[in-house]
Amino acid sequence: MRYALISDIHGNLEALEAVLKCLASEDIDEYICAGDIVGYGANPRECIEAVRSIDPKILVAGNHEWGVLGLLDIDYFSENAAAAIIWAKGVLERGELEYLKSFKLSASLEDFTVVHGSLEEPARFNYVLDGNDARRTIELLKTPLCFVGHTHIPGIFYYDEDRVVCSEGPALNVDRSRKYVINIGSVGQPRDGDRRAGFAIYDTGSGRVEIRRIDYNFERAQYKILGSGLPQRLAERLAEGR
Ligand code: ZN
Predict the structure, then answer these.
(1) Which of 10, 48, 168, 224 is 20 to 30 A from 195, alpha carbon to alpha carbon?
(2) How far apart are CA 77 and CA 3, in angstroms?
(3) Longest C-alpha distance within the chain, in Å?
(4) CA–centroid distance, residue 53 to ligand 1 (Å)
(5) Ligand 1 centroid distance, CA of 110 (Å)
(6) Over the stretch 15-46, which tens digit does the pLDDT of each residue have?
(7) What residue spans of 55-93 are helical by DSSP H?
(8) Residues 6+ apart with CB under 8 A from 241
């Protein structure tokens, strides 16, 4: 099976369409979405529709889904994130909110688990930023692989002797005797200094995970953010990949 993994789309339709177009020529069997379809960007409705159209086998909730659903207090979010959540609440329709409500917090399939933040109390949406954070998820992990998003920074965490280290990849040949936490990066708002849209492909047959990046029309996404009354900073950061 070839799985395409996407996360942290954040209402960025230009980035999502570029990623889906690229994946259309990749012989993908199933799609997996690790959450945060909405928030920050100007097209939450269109992004929900596009995700629905690929019918992901696993869809887990991100903190921004929980924000618009009122399941996470608005004080949890930064000022700009909160502004975007309040804005998204105003544009999403009932059927779209019902769809977001159907997402679980974590799910497993074959030899992998998917969670937005970390396995340590998934409803708290903790960040896996370093080896220590990743170690706690590895200890709770019941499958060899765990795919996460949330930080918008791609990376592969695994034990090297007695400590957990992080590799930037971009590819991994899975050693089945190990466990890995793999951050698949962000489609719509990368934060590692590279503004290109991020996603991953996992081929269970060859045991290979690839973290990919592709260019998209970020200027158009910026233009829409500025035209919709969302905070200006949310447009600026797309150019910086921060
Ligand atoms: Zn996010």
Answers:
(1) 48
(2) 31
(3) 51
(4) 21
(5) 25
(6) 999 999 999 999 999 999 999 999 999 999 99
(7) 63-68, 79-91
(8) 190, 191, 192, 193, 194, 195, 196
